[in-house]
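Hi L.,

You mentioned the student needs an example of a multi-chain input paired with its predicted structure. This one should do, with 582 residues in total across all chains.
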Amino acid sequence: MSKTVDINEQHVTRVEGHGNIRVRASDGAVEQVEWQVPEAPRFFEAMVRGRDYQDIQTIVSRICGICSVTHSLAAIKAIEAAMGISVSEQTDKLRILTHYGEQLESHSLHVGYLVAPDLLGVNSVLPLVESHPDVVKTIIRIHRLGNDWMELLGGRRTHPVTLRPGGFGKLPRESELKKLRNDLENIIPDLKTVAQVIGDLAPKLPAFNRDTEYISLLNEGEYSFYHGRIASTDTEETKDVDEFESVVNEYVSPQSTAKWTRWHRDAYAVGALARFNLNAEELKPLAKETAQNLGLTQGCCNPFMNNVAQVVECVQVVEHGIELLDDVLSQGIEEEVPAPKPAPGTGVGCVEAPRGILFHKYSFDEHGVCQGGNICIPTNQNHANIQKDFESFVPQIIDRDQEEVRLLLEMLVRSYDPCISCSTHYLNVDFV
Amino acid sequence: MGDDGIGVHVVRELAAEHGPFPDTEISDLGTPGMALLHSIAERHKVILVDCADFDQPAGTCRCFSPEQAHSVKKMSGFSLHEGDLFQILKISRDLGEAPSETILVGIQPGNVSPKERLSPAVTKQMNDYVNLLKKLICNTDCRPCGNPPK
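Structure written out for the whole complex:
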């Protein structure tokens, strides 16, 4: 059989940012397979130089409209580490709760608006409003709750204003937290509905498995999004977040304006599936049951199952969110006014963004003026792994119709929930 | 933003110099995509102000209902911020949570290249836009008709 495949997809849709798929094959022989990132650089590390430490989280929040809470928290943790600022238990719990709102908002958006169309055979969520109105309504209710959750604790739906070094600029009222708790309780049936829908559609996900190194935060006794050490499925050794540069080992690839990373192998993956593979035994009961019902088991190395892991995490953050709210409400909200004092130093902050582990590092002088920053975001840690998946997956599907090959590769990229704009650093390249 | 930022300038002016209005929330909604659904859900009345290209001299203002126009926007599908307002409003109606009344205020841009200020043609009519908004909010002598406001 003589068959030529020539895919030059510019750009992949239903992802954030610009990424290209390039595949060439003749007579079943694959000649070129590339995941390319041509996105323009953002210069955030340059923007924070010379800025006061109190401004940093406000600036870097703008890296992403979807992960703005995560970027704010990573920056604040780095600032606090650099200056030796400690926070109260109340602040810690409220920050985790704020972060959970973003996880719910982001995951529901990705699974509901961006992935579900693939599984239901349409090109966007818009046709689903007519064909599957109840499913869309359910997704919108969950997405709305995620937005409202962030707005209550962060002060607005995106780019939070209450998160400050040392604590919260404005604390929620107990009555508001009680209402949020009630809303979380009431959303559980909707989460079960979505899990059921995704469970019914999951058999449509390609059965593609590639042995992969997964990396995430690990903290004993909890399914960690916020605290812990850097862990890998390849080793029992964990590293302090201060050592992140020896984990990510950033390097330049000529096919990408985003840097690539590697630790024990030539690539690794981060995100919901990585967290699940390293933390699954710490899931709350309903989240654990959801994973079982969806056929998601620890050690899974099918990247398409990342979307299933995101559904499990939606349940996890709601379930644990209710527990945290009960805890906070039982103690009562104590008024606190953050009063940090600037100090010289360098610090690292690490938080799990919805799409994987995120690192921020800043140095400050004695006046609290930023001298330099280094930000390593999850999607740029996934680019090399996407390339490795492509190299393994394409030969398995190259005999299929070209449009099917293109769609499957798009779906593979989308399964990572990439935030490509966030991942780009400056680099001059010419694409061949 | 150049004149594509007109909505931001109008709501700032309205909120800073003329507000607050009773039972009225004035917001810069950014580029929300599907999240616009949440902002407008089950409101009594929604007025959306934005730059709109309808092939008229720069600064021309049109006030209309969604039924009085249709979108010719071509979606690239590249960005999560992308959205066709008319499609979002239709989804809102299909979901049964559309506002009782929706009014669109479109202002023809003169320049939408990367900038930090409005073009002179749009700037000089800022007071007219704000006065129109005040009338629409207060329901005084102003209904969406698709014609330039008098």
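You could point out the following to them. The two ends of chain B are 28 Å apart (CA to CA). Chain B touches chain A at residues 30, 34-35, 37-38, 41, 76-81, 87, 90-91, 94-95 (CB under 8 Å).

Best wishes,
N.
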